[in-house]
Amino acid sequence: MRGKASEVVETMTRRKVDLCCLQETRWKMDGIKIIDGKDSRYKFSWSGNDKGTSGVGLSDAEKDRLYQMLQSAVAKDPASEQLIIFGDWNGHIGAESTGFREVHGGQAIGQRNTKGERVLEFAFANELVVGNFWYKKKARHLVTYQSGTAATQIDLILFLRNFRRQVSNVKVIP
User: Residue 19 is inside which H or E element, if any?
Assistant: First the structure.
């Protein structure tokens, strides 16, 4: 993210992204920063280390639809919480939703491995869905990891099952 924050904001604006999860931010320590784009404003929250290597972050539009939907849900039911888990899980979940239709939307590629099985079991046990497996996309847009001829999805976004009807799309940009 060093030196690229404005570029990220412009890309998020152009693609109409409400919430963006970032890896390898390379910003030191933890913090919150407002970054203005040409026609937009985003709030970045990040967690890093004292050396400024690795790190993860979350960015959202200051007045985004997602925030309004979450506020609306909380206002109706103060006990409710929305949970979104994202990251490079290194689990190959595979194209088949067999055994996990409640959490796997069937819009995926590759072969399931043991780690992928564990991710699906975790999602099922915690009433989550794998968000980026519910929306139809071109095969080349599904790939988040490629090595030689093997292509699969390892960057995943999980959220509570009851939140699914409020989400219109989920996309991972490798």
Answer: strand 19-23
**Does residue 75 fall inside a structural domain?**
no
Give the ranges where the chain is alpha helix by DSSP (H): 5-14, 65-76, 114-125, 139-142
Domain ranges, residue 129: 82-166
Beta bridge partners of residue 130, listed in sequence order: 158
Nearest to 36 by CA among 69, 70, 13, 68: 13
Shared domain check, 55 and 112 = no
| pLDDT, tens digit (0-9, with 9 covering 90-100), for 60-114 | 676 544 445 544 544 444 455 667 777 777 677 788 888 888 888 888 877 888 8
pLDDT of residue 68: 54
What is the Cα 99 distance to its own chain's centre? Answer: 23
